[in-house]
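2024-03-11 09:14:02 INFO worker-7 job=invfold-0412 stage=load source=structure_tokens
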């Protein structure tokens, strides 16, 4: 089974919002816990696409099973947000494929590094970031949760002399 990654379309909104909610519920994150929010979803065009970032979805067949956003922090750094893989499709490399696609897109858009955060109880996400070469920057408590912030320096492709 292969995941196909493409740019977000407005018609994806209900599907990715449902995916977001399913994935957070799976790891025990709920509205009101201090880290859960979903108010950016109706504004993906504005928050991710119109300001120099991107938002990608991953499909198996015609089913959206993964997603991730890229939001500029400043001219050299972007934040990777909303990296999600449906629980039925986890542990198949789809999260890694989405993270790599987002990192490549960040390089294409001219960013030199990416940042992101997750919670300590999202062990699969922490392991994925570590495998992909991210380094931990800090931790902070938000209510009962520990938020782990990480970063990765991006290496642009080297042009080959001919």
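2024-03-11 09:14:09 INFO worker-7 stage=emit residues=162
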């Amino acid at each position: 089974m292969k995941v196909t990654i493409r740019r977000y379309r407005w018609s994806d909104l209900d599907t990715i919002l449902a995916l977001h909610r399913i994935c957070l519920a799976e790891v025990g994150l709920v509205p009101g816990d201090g880290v859960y929010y979903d108010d950016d979803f109706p504004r993906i065009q504005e928050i991710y696409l119109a300001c120099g970032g991107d938002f990608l979805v991953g499909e198996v067949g015609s089913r959206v099973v993964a997603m991730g956003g890229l939001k500029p922090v400043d001219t050299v750094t972007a934040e990777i947000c909303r990296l999600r893989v449906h629980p039925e499709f986890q542990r198949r490399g789809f999260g890694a494929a989405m993270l790599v696609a987002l990192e490549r897109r960040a390089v294409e858009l001219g960013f030199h590094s990416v940042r992101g955060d997750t919670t300590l109880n999202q062990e699969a996400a922490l392991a994925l970031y570590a495998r992909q070469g991210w380094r931990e920057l800090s931790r902070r408590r938000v209510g009962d949760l520990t938020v782990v912030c990480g970063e990765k320096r991006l290496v642009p492709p080297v042009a080959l002399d001919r």
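2024-03-11 09:14:09 INFO worker-7 stage=report msg="Residues 2 and 60 are 6 Å apart (CA to CA)."
2024-03-11 09:14:10 INFO worker-7 job finished
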